[in-house]
Amino acid sequence: MSRWIQEGDNVDITNERKKGTFDTERMSAWIHGGPEVLKRRREILSFVKSIDDFKDPVPTEFMSREERILNNARKVVAMTDNTDQIDGSDFFGEGMYYQALTMGRDLHAMSLHYVMFIPTLQGQTDDEQLDEWLTKAISRAVVGTYAQTELGHGTNLSKLETTATYDSATEEFVLNSPTITAAKWWPGGLGKSSNYAVVVAQLYTKGECKGPHPFIVQLRDDETHMPLKGIRLGDIGPKLGINGNDNGFLLFDKVRIPRRALLMRYAKVKPDGTYVAPAHSKLGYGTMVFVRSIMIKDQSTQLAAAATIATRYASVRRQGEISPGKGEVQIIDYQTQQFRVFPQMARAFAFMAAATEIRDLYMTVTEQLTHGNTELLAELHVLSSGLKSIVSWDTAQGIEQCRLACGGHGYSQASGFPEIYGYAVGGCTYEGENLVMLLQVARFLMRAAEGVRKGTAKLADIGAYIGKTGSKTSRLTTHHHYTDADLVADLEHAARKQVFRAYDRLKKAQQHLSPEDAWNSVSVELAKASRWHVRVYLVKNFLNKVALAPQDLKFVLTDVARLYAYDIITSSIGAFLEDGYMSSNQMNEVKEGIYECLAKIRPNAVALVDSWDYDDKELKSVLGRRDGNVYPALLEWAQNSQLNRSDVLPSHTKYLGPMMKDARSKL
Amino acid sequence: MSRWIQEGDNVDITNERKKGTFDTERMSAWIHGGPEVLKRRREILSFVKSIDDFKDPVPTEFMSREERILNNARKVVAMTDNTDQIDGSDFFGEGMYYQALTMGRDLHAMSLHYVMFIPTLQGQTDDEQLDEWLTKAISRAVVGTYAQTELGHGTNLSKLETTATYDSATEEFVLNSPTITAAKWWPGGLGKSSNYAVVVAQLYTKGECKGPHPFIVQLRDDETHMPLKGIRLGDIGPKLGINGNDNGFLLFDKVRIPRRALLMRYAKVKPDGTYVAPAHSKLGYGTMVFVRSIMIKDQSTQLAAAATIATRYASVRRQGEISPGKGEVQIIDYQTQQFRVFPQMARAFAFMAAATEIRDLYMTVTEQLTHGNTELLAELHVLSSGLKSIVSWDTAQGIEQCRLACGGHGYSQASGFPEIYGYAVGGCTYEGENLVMLLQVARFLMRAAEGVRKGTAKLADIGAYIGKTGSKTSRLTTHHHYTDADLVADLEHAARKQVFRAYDRLKKAQQHLSPEDAWNSVSVELAKASRWHVRVYLVKNFLNKVALAPQDLKFVLTDVARLYAYDIITSSIGAFLEDGYMSSNQMNEVKEGIYECLAKIRPNAVALVDSWDYDDKELKSVLGRRDGNVYPALLEWAQNSQLNRSDVLPSHTKYLGPMMKDARSKL
Predict the structure, then answer these.
(1) Which of A18, A435, A499, B419 is the most exposed place for a label (fewest CB within 10 A)?
(2) Together in a domain, B185 and B271
(3) Which pLDDT score is estimated for B366?
(4) Is the domain of B168 the same as that of B270?
């Protein structure tokens, strides 16, 4: 019997849980990394539930921005007060779960403190600086953020406008924002919460610009928290999501900071203004890969939440009759509903598998690097950039599909979807805009293609398919006999073809254009090649994981993995048909495969989403609640509305009431 | 010289406007229906700008829900006070424009009063009822809404649970909500603003249920505005969009209303309880078609706004270098940016053309109906349902593409995108959930397919292609010689093929399943057929309109129309290749056609979006402002943030400040 069934639950959802043909607890363990991890999740959950400071006085949807900021500040202090409750070294697992349970889908006053400020101190300070600043940051004596992006400047760091000009007379830098477009813009927690920041500015010394460098800068007075002289800062206003955070702006009017504010692990400026260039590259691929594996985990968690809500709601919502007189059916029985929701569930599984794998690869590469082996590094960096792009986009689209599948109630904030979407879709833009990321992947792919053509390619496993010859036609006979190997070969064919299509077009364009203009003129094709590269990886990785799953889980996971792969193929039919690689009969087999997967997943749908192990506290959705008792909960939720605090609003008293009264008097 | 150029504008945007190769004023006239219409638009605009009550004290993004509700109430009274300023008979033109300028992208307290309450009174009352209620409604002596949808019941009206039981002893109906799922849920303005509603309830008399009927019901006291006895109502809480409206819930506890509360134009109940069934169908296809043509206009207006913002911003935003040393480029010069944004612009043009056409067809059909000619009615109804579905979905996706194309700033509410998206995407669900609509279209298509197979089909122009034989292969040679007729034939081929694919699968499924289960088992294929049906119409209609455009506009409109059509073809490559109808060389021609369209549209992009004639008051976007002076405006906009009212927030004083102080004391 599923552990998810309790007395008093909605009957339909209980029946769904009884229908499941596998053990959800074993599946949860498989997803999360073993029974021990599950046990720890539940310990963390009960701890969080036991602490009053983690409770929201009303659902956060009903709070104003000011209220959310205040609510989040209380929670983040409580959260960081209690970090001994979790294994701090396991941020990917326990850390993310603990933060999700306590802070929900929002950034908080110390998000950038932990994700950017502290890591930058660790990576960029010299030993003396590290002692001073890391101690302060970790003890929470200061709250820091990371101020790099400017109002007029994002991706292209070389064009940042903020200047830090060295004055050897006083041994100080003068920080200045020469224009409005130089305003630092977007950093989380900058507007109101932080009192320190790492600020990236163009370093000038002895009349020369040495490019962008990081400085640690005090922004607000320790005691009064008022902005220091010459510093203008504030909140940048409401956004599509994360409105519990005070993303901020920051302008400097000739603010003097000490020479040692420059983080000096690599570049240095001596007291007399002599610039000492860094001895070796500052680039930390490793950290970027790690941050992106966190992002992929986070995105897949959001998509899984959306799929959980839509699947559970579809099992309790009854609407319309399929057979007249037999009563209204659960909407999960409509093929169109399954076609909308189940592929999102499959994607979430695939993305979770990728997140774990990338984290493990990161560990491997880190280990290899200690032995001077850089073989995998470039490919892994490229892959993680591409994954970030594909996963965040598919996640955003998938969340909206799940929301729309819930009809009108999906539009209400009670569903949780508006918050999930607003939070997750930001991932398409931050940590590298998706198209910029794809074009970085394409640089790698074009080098690989060139290598293959010249016979000099050295490709690690991830990109090895680019150098393969492959079959000229698909080996698919019927979808019942479609092996994993053949399926992967088909996807690799499509990917390889697009890589070389882009490569050939690039070469051709280079004949009459500058290298840069040629690149731009084929960039749509390049981005397509990158998408294929990443999707091949996602399918391969998911199939590999499933192949290793225990027998009692493998059969249902296979349905999910196949749905994921078939959905990719049938969304790009042209890629398989245009060179005669597949026949339309073969493509029809794949289409039939989808319908079969939908039908096979149907009885296991609720059990599958249960297996992700969302507690209602994490899911934050009236539609997706475990017990399925959606309707009374919606009515109760609505009572919190700000507008329901009084029966008659000023809008009536001041405007609509007098209007009607006047009209009545004239009737 | 473009009328859009003014002194002090951003230099880049001015240069773009100088580049345009056509007269924007002539294009605006073509889009909106002639120079006279343009003149009237500008008169309405200056009137609205002249009235203080239409001014928002701060941008609405910074208002709480309570503040928005109050702000909207003031504006809606002013708006309806001044309806003499516009031609009330031209809701599609002047009415929608006036409302957009005054109310922005939000519903208001009287939205349903005008869109549902009054039309229902007009359609469903007998003469005596009409006299009483229409007078009150039009004079604004009452504010009404339309309460049909229930918490547990949407599309399937026959399962509504609210009951109206006739009591002949007192000649009253007793309104009751027997369960929580019977709560009326969603009606606009129901929560706080309205004092009357048309309520749809199951009519019981003499112990028999006669199905759902409309009743006019007073909800709140005329003087005090307090809910009447037995009536429980309120706001349903925040949503993804339209939060300036009090969408509401409503529960009846045995509320007695007079017999004559039943709207008696069709069905009647006599004093003794005898039910008189309606003499003929109540179905008003005409009104539904009209409402949907309004929706399509509205949706296309939102997509055009998004495309305007993204195009203008892309012309002033400079980022990255294409050629090193030549300075940062306008991001509109990136092919990937053009590929993201320009197709959205093209869609908006196509959808506007469809909206006008549907409105005109509606007039024709109405005229035909007065002569008893129903030939076009069913096809038109079907087409308008399908258009609503395709247009709202493509609009939602298009808006998000435009937003993402603006990078980080697109995520800020300063961009306008979050509001545009939240408002527009609701259209995927209301007025008939999109998939339900597509399956209605499919009913027509399956009847048509059956007729064609049996040789009995009588198809009007819209569906005539279903009965054509068509060529077995595409006549496309190169995209430079691709005629409109050949292009349309190609799309018709794809549509026809999918219609018959769905039909054949349906017939096959019917051999072993009940008709209803068979239908469900092929519903994904049915929905696909419907999408093709509508897209064929959209392309044909757009090409036809462009063919009739004046020569000096036609050349640029042709680029836009071709981009629209090619984008559809290359998004469904399989549909053209799988039966050998097109070769991959032919498909490559279409792909090349897209790149050529992008390059040709590039210099006209800003002029094209200017031609939609958005004033900044309507556009409501810092990124899309006419003058292109985006950065100072962003900084100014942010000053309005609720969080910027004081330098130090309670979140610091209560939580973060003490945390840091404590840590400092221990250092």
Answers:
(1) A18
(2) yes
(3) 81
(4) yes
Rounded Cα gap, residues B314 and B609, in angstroms: 12
User: Which of residues B400 and A288 earns the better pLDDT score?
Assistant: B400
Under a CB-based contact definition with an 8 Å cutoff, are residues A355 and A293 in contact?
A: yes
- The pLDDT of residue B282 is 46
Instruction: Please spell the DSSP secondary structure of A281-309, one letter per residue.
Output: ----HHHHHHHHHHHHHHHHHHHHHHHHH
CB contact under 8 A, B638 and A236: yes
| pLDDT tens-digit map of A100-132 | 999 999 999 999 999 999 999 998 999 999 999
User: Which amino acid, A569?
Assistant: I
Are B154 and B93 in a shared domain? Answer: no
Give the residue from A279, A272, A249, A261 showing the smallest Cα distance to A164: A261
Domain final residue, candidates B58, B79, B106: B106
pLDDT band (50, 70, 90) for residue B285? low
Residues in chain B within 8 Å Cβ distance of A635: 151, 180, 183, 249
The yes-or-no answer on residue A367 being catalytic is no
One domain, residues B148 and B251: yes
Q: What is the CATH number of the domain that holds A577?
A: 1.20.140.10
Name the residue among A136, A181, A521 with its Cβ closest to that of B335.
Answer: A521
Q: Is residue A220 part of a domain?
A: yes
Length of chain A, in residues = 667
Residues B146 and B83 both lie in one domain: no
The domain that holds B90 is classified in CATH as 1.10.540.10
Distance CA B378, CA B445 (A): 11
Instruction: Choose among B359, B657, B352: nearest CA to A194.
Output: B657
Q: Which domain holds residue B176?
A: 141-276
Please identify, among B251, B276, B301, the residue that sits at the C-terminal boundary of a domain: B276
pLDDT 10s digits, B38-61: 999 999 999 999 999 999 999 999
Give the CATH number, domain containing residue B207.
2.40.110.10
Check: CB of residue A499 under 8 Å from CB of residue A533: yes
Query: Identity (one letter) of the amino acid at A573?
Result: I
- Cα-based distances in Å from B452 to B41, B457, B459, B464: 47, 5, 9, 10
Q: Which residues contact B135 (CB under 8 A, 6 or more apart)?
A: A667, B141
Mind giving me the DSSP string for A460-511?
-GGGGGGG----SS-----GGG--HHHHHHHHHHHHHHHHHHHHHHHHHHHT
Say which of A80, A414, A524 has its CB closest to residue B336.
Answer: A524
8 Å CB contact of B73 and A656: yes
Residue A23: CB atoms within 10 Å: 18
B140, B153, B642: residue with CB nearest A64: B642
When divided into structural domains, chain B yields a total of 3
B151 and B263 share one domain:
yes
Mean pLDDT of chain B: 95
Instruction: Judge whether residue B279 has pLDDT over 80.
Output: no
pLDDT bin (cut points 50, 70, 90) of residue B22 is very high
Q: Quick one: chain B helix, strand, coil %, rounded to 5? A: 60, 10, 30
DSSP, collapsed to helix, strand or coil, labels residue B519 as: helix
The answer to whether position B403 is within a domain reads no
Of A61, A161, A357, A431, the catalytic one is A431
Please report whether residue B396 resides in a domain: no
List B61, B94, B419, B431, catalytic entry: B431
Nearest chain B alpha carbon to A250: B635
Q: Over the range B365-392, which residues count as b (16 or more CB within 10 Å of their CB) and which as e?
A: beeeeeeeeeebbebbbbbbbbbbbbbb
Cα angle: B287, vertex B288, B292; to 5 degrees: 115
Looking at the structure, tell me whether residues B98 and B153 fall in a common domain. Answer: no
Position A117 in a domain: no
Distance of CA B346 to the CA centre of its chain: 17
Chain A, residues 70-89, CB within 8 A of chain B, namely 70, 72-74, 76-77, 80
